[in-house]
C-alpha cells in the first residue's frame, strides 16, 4: 500500500466536508441567496413579525437545536489530528495491518479530557485525564480509549454508574463542580475498597498534569494481540510523552482554574500552531498465554498495573499531533470513541471492566449524537469503504441504491457478503470458556492494597508529601466525620505513616493496627524518574523601559534551546532598551501571572519604577513558592537580593559559576526544585 496515501487519506477525506464561508454570499441551508439578515419580515416597520419569514424560522430553529447532550463523563475535552508511524514490525504478535511494515503512517485523532467536570469546568481540576486515540487504518477504525492513569476505580463495569453518581456533584445541591472533595465520592471510596490503588494515583501529582503534552496515556484494560497463526498474547498499551511526565502543584492548579480555565487546551493549540508538535511513543507490554497466572496479581484486574520492571514496555512507534481541529464542535464534540472498534489482530479479554465498556460506549453515542448513524459524521468515518445492510435512521448520509437490504439474497448476488479470515474478515480469538453462570468475582481480584502500597513505596519524598496534602485537602472538605474516619481507616491498609499523617491533619485519632508488609517498588511510577527537557517550556521575561541591550542576545540564546519567550511589563507594546533596541511586551502584570509560565526571568534595568518593582516582586515570589526556576541578569538580580532569594535552589544569577544560559536551561529542564526554603 502507498504509505503516503494512507497517511494523508483522512485529511483528504475531511477536505470535502470543510466549508470556508469567507467572501461568499449568504444563503439559506437550501442554497437560496439571502438579501437581509438584520431584520425579520414584519407587517409594517413597527408591526408584528410574519410567520412566513422562512429565513428567520430556519435560522432560529437551527440555533435552538445547536446543542447536543454533553458526555456524562469526559465532557470537558480538546483534540487534535496527527499521524502514527510504526518503528518496527509487530507481525510476530499481531496481524493488524497498520502494525506490520516499519515506516507505515496511519492518521489519528486524539481527544484529551477531564473525567468529572461539565463542558464549562476548569481544566486544572484534580482528576484523571482521558487519552482517546482513533486510528484511521485501511482495515477500519481502531480506537485506543484510555486514561493518563493505568488503573481504574472499579473491577466490574456494572459498578460504573455507582462510581460516576458518587463522584459527580451531589444531586441535592449540584455541588461541587469538577471535584471529588465531597462526601459522596469519599463515602464510595471507603465502602468500595477496590478503589484503593486508583485513589493513590488520583491523589498524586498525576492528577494535575502540566499539560496534555506531558502526561502518559494508558489503555487501562487488558487486550489481546493475535497473529496470523492464531497465537495470542495479552497486551497493555502505553503512550510515553517525549517531553516527559510533569505536573503542577496544587496551589498552582487552583489559581490556574481562575486565571485561565482553558490552560490545557490553549497549551495544546498553541504548541501545534507554532510547530512544536506533541509527540508520544507507543509502547506495549505483552504476556504469553502460558504465563497468565505467574504473577502476584491478576492480569485481567483493571485495578492492577503490570510493573514495567516485571513486564517491560516495548516501544513500537511514535504519534505526532500536527494539526489543530478546524471546528471544535464538528470534530472534538462529535467524535465517537468505542473500545469495541478494533481491527483484525486486536481482540478482547475477560476483563470484566472491559466487557462493561464494550456495551456502554455505543449506547452512549446513540443518545448523544441522535441515532445510529454517528459513524457517518466526517470525524468518525473510516478511510476505508464500508458496506452492509444497515439502513435509515436519524442523520443518514449514505444514499443506498438498489432494492436489496438483507442477507442472504439472490437479487444482488448475495452481496454485500462476509469474507474469510484470509481475506481480512474479523474473527474473534477462540478462547475456551467453561464455567457456571454466577454473579461473583474471582478470588484473584480480592487484593485491593498491595499495588496501592507499591505505588506509595515508589514515590519520591516530595511526591509522598503531595499525596498526604491531597488526602488532607479532599477529606477536609467532607462534612461527615464518619466518612473521613472510614477513609483513613482504609488507607491504613496502604501505609501506616500515610494514614497517621492524614489523620493528624484531620484531627482524627487512630490505632495503628494494620501494618502493611509489602516493600515492593516500581521506579517507573515516579515522575522524578521521567525525561527532563527544556523544549517548549514557557519563560516569563519581566522587563521595563531602559533594559540592557544585551538582553536581546540572551533571549535569542534561550530560544535556540527550544524555550518559548514571552515578555511581561507594565504596559503593552514596544519597550525601548537603554541602547535604543526594542522588545514587544506580550503581557502586562494584569493579564499575566506566574502560574501561566514554567519559569521566570527578571531583567529589569537600574532604577526601575516602584510600581513595576512591586508587581514584579509578587510575580517572582509566587513562582518561587511553586518551586519554579527563576533567573535574573543585568540589574534584575537586585530584586532577588531584596527578596532574599539569591543562592536558593533553582535560582540562577550572573554570579553562577557556569554559563548563565546553560545554567538556566538546566534549571528549566529540572522543572521544580523541591528542596528550596519556602
Automatic annotation (TrEMBL):
SMART domains assigned: Catalase
Family annotation (Pfam families): Catalase, Catalase-rel, Catalase_C
Necessary cofactors: heme
Record-level GO BP terms: hydrogen peroxide catabolic process; response to oxidative stress
PROSITE patterns (UniProt xref): CATALASE_1 (PS00437), CATALASE_2 (PS00438), CATALASE_3 (PS51402)
Gene Ontology cellular-component terms listed: cytosol
SUPFAM superfamilies associated with the record: Class I glutamine amidotransferase-like, Heme-dependent catalase-like
Residues forming the catalytic site: 74, 147
Residues that coordinate or bind heme: 71, 111, 160, 357, 361, 368
UniProt keyword list: Heme, Hydrogen peroxide, Iron, Metal-binding, Oxidoreductase, Peroxidase
Catalysed reactions, as listed in the record: 2 H2O2 = O2 + 2 H2O
Organism for this UniProt entry: Psychrobacillus lasiicapitis
Cross-link annotation 3'-histidyl-3-tyrosine (His-Tyr), location: 338-361
E.C. number: 1.11.1.6
Domain Catalase core: 27-415
Comp. bias (Basic and acidic residues): 12-25
Function noted in UniProt: Decomposes hydrogen peroxide into water and oxygen; serves to protect cells from the toxic effects of hydrogen peroxide.
Protein name stated in the entry: Catalase
Keyword field contains Oxidoreductase: yes
Ranges for region Disordered: 1-27
Amino acid at each position: 500500500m502507498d504509505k503516503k496515501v494512507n497517511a494523508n487519506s483522512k485529511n483528504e477525506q475531511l477536505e470535502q466536508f470543510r466549508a470556508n464561508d469567507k467572501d461568499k454570499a449568504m444563503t439559506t441551508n437550501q442554497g437560496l441567496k439571502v438579501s437581509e439578515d438584520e431584520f425579520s419580515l414584519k407587517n409594517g416597520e413597527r408591526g408584528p413579525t410574519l410567520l412566513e419569514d422562512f429565513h428567520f424560522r430556519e435560522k432560529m430553529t437551527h440555533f435552538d437545536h445547536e446543542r447536543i447532550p454533553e458526555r456524562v463523563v469526559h465532557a470537558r475535552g480538546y483534540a487534535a489530528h496527527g499521524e502514527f508511524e510504526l518503528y518496527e514490525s509487530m507481525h510476530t504478535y499481531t496481524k493488524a495491518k497498520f502494525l506490520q511494515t516499519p515506516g507505515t503512517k496511519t492518521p489519528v485523532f486524539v481527544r484529551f479530557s477531564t473525567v468529572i467536570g461539565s463542558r464549562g469546568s476548569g481544566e486544572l481540576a484534580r482528576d484523571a485525564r482521558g487519552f482517546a486515540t482513533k486510528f484511521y487504518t485501511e482495515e477500519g477504525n481502531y480506537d485506543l480509549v484510555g486514561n493518563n492513569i493505568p488503573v481504574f476505580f472499579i473491577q466490574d463495569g456494572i459498578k460504573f454508574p455507582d462510581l460516576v453518581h458518587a463522584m459527580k456533584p451531589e444531586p441535592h445541591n449540584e455541588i461541587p463542580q469538577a471535584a471529588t472533595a465531597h462526601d459522596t465520592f469519599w463515602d464510595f471510596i471507603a465502602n468500595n475498597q477496590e478503589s484503593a490503588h486508583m485513589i493513590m494515583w488520583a491523589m498524586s501529582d498525576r492528577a494535575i498534569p502540566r499539560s496534555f503534552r506531558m502526561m502518559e496515556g494508558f489503555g487501562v484494560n487488558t487486550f489481546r494481540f493475535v497473529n496470523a497463526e492464531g497465537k495470542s498474547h495479552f497486551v497493555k498499551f502505553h503512550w510515553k510523552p517525549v517531553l516527559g511526565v510533569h505536573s503542577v502543584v496544587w496551589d498552582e492548579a487552583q489559581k490556574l482554574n481562575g486565571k485561565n480555565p482553558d490552560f490545557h487546551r490553549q497549551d495544546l493549540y498553541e504548541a501545534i500552531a507554532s510547530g512544536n508538535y506533541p509527540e508520544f511513543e507507543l509502547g506495549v507490554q505483552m504476556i504469553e498465554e502460558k504465563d497468565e497466572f505467574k504473577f502476584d496479581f491478576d492480569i485481567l484486574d483493571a485495578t492492577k498495573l503490570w510493573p514495567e520492571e516485571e513486564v517491560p514496555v516495548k516501544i513500537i512507534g511514535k504519534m505526532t499531533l500536527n494539526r489543530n481541529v478546524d471546528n471544535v464542535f464538528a470534530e472534538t464534540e462529535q467524535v465517537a470513541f468505542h473500545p469495541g472498534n478494533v481491527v483484525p489482530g486486536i481482540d478482547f479479554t475477560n476483563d470484566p471492566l472491559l466487557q462493561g465498556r464494550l456495551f456502554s460506549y455505543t449506547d452512549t453515542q446513540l443518545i448523544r449524537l441522535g441515532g445510529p448513524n454517528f459513524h457517518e459524521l466526517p470525524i468518525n468515518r473510516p478511510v476505508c469503504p464500508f458496506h452492509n445492510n444497515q439502513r435509515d435512521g436519524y442523520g443518514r448520509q449514505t444514499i443506498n441504491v438498489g432494492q436489496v437490504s438483507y442477507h442472504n439474497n439472490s437479487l444482488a448476488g448475495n452481496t454485500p457478503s462476509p469474507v474469510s479470515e484470509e481475506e481480512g474478515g474479523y474473527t474473534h480469538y477462540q478462547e475456551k470458556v467453561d464455567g457456571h453462570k454466577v454473579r461473583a468475582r474471582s478470588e484473584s481480584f480480592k487484593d485491593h492494597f498491595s499495588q496501592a502500597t507499591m505505588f506509595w513505596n515508589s514515590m519520591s519524598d516530595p511526591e509522598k508529601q503531595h499525596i498526604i496534602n491531597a488526602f488532607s485537602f479532599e477529606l477536609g472538605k467532607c462534612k461527615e466525620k464518619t466518612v473521613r474516619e472510614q477513609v483513613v481507616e482504609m488507607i491504613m491498609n496502604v501505609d501506616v505513616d500515610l494514614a497517621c499523617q492524614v489523620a493528624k491533619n484531620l484531627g482524627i485519632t487512630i490505632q495503628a493496627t494494620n501494618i502493611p508488609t509489602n516493600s515492593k517498588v516500581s521506579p517507573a511510577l515516579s515522575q522524578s524518574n521521567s525525561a527532563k527537557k527544556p523544549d517548549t517550556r514557557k519563560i516569563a521575561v519581566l522587563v521595563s523601559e531602559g533594559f540592557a541591550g544585551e538582553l536581546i542576545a540572551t533571549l535569542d540564546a534561550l530560544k535556540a534551546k527550544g524555550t518559548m519567550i514571552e515578555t511581561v511589563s507594565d504596559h503593552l507594546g514596544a519597550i525601548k532598551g537603554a541602547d535604543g533596541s526594542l522588545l514587544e511586551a506580550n503581557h502586562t502584570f494584569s493579564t499575566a501571572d506566574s502560574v501561566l509560565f514554567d519559569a521566570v526571568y527578571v531583567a529589569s534595568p537600574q532604577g526601575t519604577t516602584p510600581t513595576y518593582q512591586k508587581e514584579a516582586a509578587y510575580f517572582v515570589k509566587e513562582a518561587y513558592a511553586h518551586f519554579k526556576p527563576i533567573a535574573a541578569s543585568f540589574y534584575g538580580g537586585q530584586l532577588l537580593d531584596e527578596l532574599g532569594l539569591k543562592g536558593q535552589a533553582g535560582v540562577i544569577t550572573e554570579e553562577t559559576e557556569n554559563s548563565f544560559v546553560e545554567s538556566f536551561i538546566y534549571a528549566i529542564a529540572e522543572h521544580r526544585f523541591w528542596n528550596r526554603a519556602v
